């Protein structure tokens, strides 16, 4: 069915109603300028007769277009295209999208690619306890009965301040306990007002990216490094510049050369993720000096420093900062259990209000019931005792993993003892592809992450990241045996592609 009215045709097979087809056709004609402002349209009766449809159908389309100000009715004269459509508006419909909008689409695409990269750190679908998933604490050893009593007490007592909107920076007593703990255990120089309670370290990353960098700004990231950091940088549309790691940690000289105008530098100085290197004092001072010269911020991710098996935990980079350039962040999720979404950022005094506002904009703050329970958990010494127990347990599990690797993986994977951490890196023979190796191991039910998946630039040697804290001794034995079978079957044809 076709009408003489500028090629209006109705498709009986269309999923759209006839009213919608008439509406779309006339709207396109108005926007393209095919019907000039002030032009008279056929009467509803005439158009219905031309197309062979009900007049009420045409009236419904006209009514919708009139309601949206494309058409206007004049008593006794008919229906017309409105006269006051701006010429610039009509011309804009005839031209390609402006460069400004196209650039916006590219920016959105860049942000989307960065956010998509976060899929690498999304929750896995496999059972949570599986050799050798990295970063997984031993939940079986956590004192859940004690924790349940602390939480239940809050609901039983129903203190009004725990069940209403409060300071988005966090529960005051918890911020005090965190500041005291970090001052004593990690050498931070801070007061409770500088502590912002967050929903884990990933949220601290997100807040920092939103506040400290914008589209096109340069952010230096460790390479290899934490996938969540790279995703957060790219999601903010900032430009991520990879910086290699050597035996002293973050290569400051390389960063200076590659990114002289860096706005943000993200580092894991106490134990580099994933290689486990500790940044030397010389490098730390060089980094602080460079940040001062370029007026850059430093984001210090201290993700598992509590688990040091030789000597005391190392002092944080923030404790050396005399200019208020370091934002320090940590999490309780790796120390207790992952579903406890509690972490913290310690920010310089002049950023406190900005982080507080960003936290409020994000989600108004974490559960005050859990924050209150956490404050008591720390104040009564339960947290320190739990960390000490886990430190001893994890040291034994690391030793078990190394011993099993030496027994079953000799010549296939080089795994060595480290003085700290929750995972080890096993190095493949020269030229072997770590992606192929991880895929082969996964087919036998073992989870290891290839180092190349955490790298922007090619690595000189393939490696596999192996977490040991969330698995028992029998699971370590079985996991290593499966790896030995998979890597042996892989053979010499698994060279880097």
Account of the 3D structure:
By secondary structure, the chain is an alpha/beta fold. It starts with 17 loop residues before the first helix and ends in a 7-residue tail after the last helix. Helix 7 packs across helix 13, helix 8 (201-212) packs parallel to helix 9 and helix 14 packs parallel to helix 16. The protein is built from 16 helices and 14 strands. The longest helix has 27 residues, at 382-408. It has three domains: 18-94, Winged helix-like DNA-binding domain superfamily/Winged helix DNA-binding domain (Arc Repressor Mutant, subunit A, Orthogonal Bundle); 142-384, Type I PLP-dependent aspartate aminotransferase-like (Major domain) (Aspartate Aminotransferase, domain 2), CATH 3.40.640; 387-490, Alpha-Beta Complex (Aspartate Aminotransferase, domain 1). An eight-stranded mixed β-sheet has the order 3-10-9-8-7-4-5-6, with helices on both faces. A four-stranded antiparallel β-sheet has the order 11-12-14-13. Strands 1-2 form a two-stranded antiparallel ribbon.
By helix and strand content, what is the structural category?
alpha/beta
The number of helical segments is 16
Regions with pLDDT < 50 over 5+ consecutive residues?
87-108, 118-123
Main-sheet strand order equals 3-10-9-8-7-4-5-6
Write out the CATH superfamily name of the largest domain. Type I PLP-dependent aspartate aminotransferase-like (Major domain)
Integer-rounded radius of gyration: 31 Å
For this structure, the CATH topology of the largest domain is Aspartate Aminotransferase, domain 2
């Amino acid at each position: 069915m076709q009408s003489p009215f500028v090629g209006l045709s109705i498709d009986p097979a269309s999923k759209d109603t006839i009213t919608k087809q008439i509406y779309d056709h006339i709207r396109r004609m108005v926007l393209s300028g095919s019907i000039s402002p002030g032009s008279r349209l056929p009467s509803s009766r005439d158009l219905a007769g031309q197309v062979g449809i009900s007049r009420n159908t045409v009236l419904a389309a006209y009514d919708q277009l009139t309601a949206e100000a494309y058409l206007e009715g004049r008593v006794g004269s008919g229906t017309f295209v409105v006269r006051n459509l701006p010429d610039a508006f009509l011309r804009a419909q005839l031209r390609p999208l402006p460069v400004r909008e196209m650039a916006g689409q590219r920016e959105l695409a860049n942000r989307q690619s960065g956010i998509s990269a976060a899929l690498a750190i999304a929750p896995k679908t496999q059972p949570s306890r599986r050799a050798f998933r990295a970063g997984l604490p031993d939940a079986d050893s956590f004192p859940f009965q004690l924790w349940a009593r602390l939480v239940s007490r809050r609901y039983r007592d129903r203190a009004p301040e725990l069940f209403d909107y409060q300071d988005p920076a966090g529960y005051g007593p918890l911020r005090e306990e965190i500041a005291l703990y970090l001052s004593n255990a990690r050498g931070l120089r801070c007061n409770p007002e500088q502590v912002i309670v967050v929903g884990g370290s990933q949220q601290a990353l997100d807040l920092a990216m939103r506040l400290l960098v914008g589209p096109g700004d340069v952010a230096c990231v460790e390479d290899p490094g934490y996938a969540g950091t790279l995703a957060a940088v790219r999601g903010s549309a900032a430009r991520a510049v990879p910086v290699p790691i050597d035996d002293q940690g973050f290569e400051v000289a390389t960063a200076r050369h590659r990114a002289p105008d860096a706005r943000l530098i993200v580092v894991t100085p106490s134990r580099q993720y994933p290689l486990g290197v500790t940044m030397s004092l010389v490098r730390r001072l060089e980094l602080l000096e460079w940040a001062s010269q370029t007026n850059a911020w430093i984001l210090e991710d201290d993700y598992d420093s509590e688990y040091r098996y030789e000597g005391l935990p190392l002092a944080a980079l923030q404790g050396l900062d005399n200019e208020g350039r370091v934002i320090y962040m940590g999490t309780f999720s790796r120390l207790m259990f992952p579903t406890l979404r509690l972490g913290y950022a310690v920010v310089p005094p002049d950023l406190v209000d900005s982080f507080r506002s960003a936290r409020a904009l994000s989600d108004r703050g974490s559960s005050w019931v859990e924050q209150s329970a956490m404050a008591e958990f720390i104040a009564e010494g339960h947290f320190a005792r739990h960390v000490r127990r886990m430190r001893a347990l994890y040291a034994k599990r690391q030793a078990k993993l190394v011993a099993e690797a030496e027994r079953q993986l000799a010549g296939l994977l080089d795994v060595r003892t480290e003085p700290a951490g929750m995972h080890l890196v096993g190095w493949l023979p020269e030229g072997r592809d770590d992606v192929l190796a991880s895929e082969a191991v996964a087919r036998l039910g073992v989870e290891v992450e290839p180092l190349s998946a955490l790298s922007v630039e090619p690595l000189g040697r393939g490696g596999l990241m192996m977490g040991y804290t969330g698995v028992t001794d029998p699971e370590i034995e079985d996991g290593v045996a499966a790896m030995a079978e998979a890597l042996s079957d892989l053979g010499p044809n698994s060279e880097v592609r």
